[in-house]
Write a structure and sequence with these properties.
Length: 189
Amino acid sequence: MPKKNVVRYCEICGSVIEGRGIERLIEGTKMIVCISCARFGEATKRSPPVTSETSVIPIRRKRKTTTRTHTPKSKRKKVSIPSPEKFFSRYEIVEDYSSIIRKAREKMELTQEELGQELNVKGSVIQKLETGKTKPTDPKSIIKLEAILNIKIHKPIEKQEYAPPKTKGTDFTTLGEVVKFRKKKEDEE
């Protein structure tokens, strides 16, 4: 009875052989070879496949030992995380982020080290965040922190409308004034 889950390799070139391979007599030795190497030998009577260690290697299959307790990747909510430049051009960190993080962590009864492990950072990083010495700068970490603690520490940047200064004596703004105002605003940034 032939073995199942066996991969055969050509004894000349080493490539994987599909199916049983071709038996050839090459320089007095019977070999199992691939189609491209079969031209090097003479045809022999078909005998049971050679099972030398060089031509047959069993495939080892991994056993499933764990059961799934988390959501499979196919059903997870896919969140695209923007680059830091895009993220901080749209969002800003709220002013009281440090107290929000600390209160949420304490409410969940987590230590700084435990929260740090969840975020793959040291506990000292969490301590600096909670004291306000460090502001979160990585969008991925911000989103992950918010998900773990069920909080929001970023908000959309509020766009402020600026009215260019009006010229004395007129009730309307000219195009030239708008251009000057925009150039002045760009220089300030």
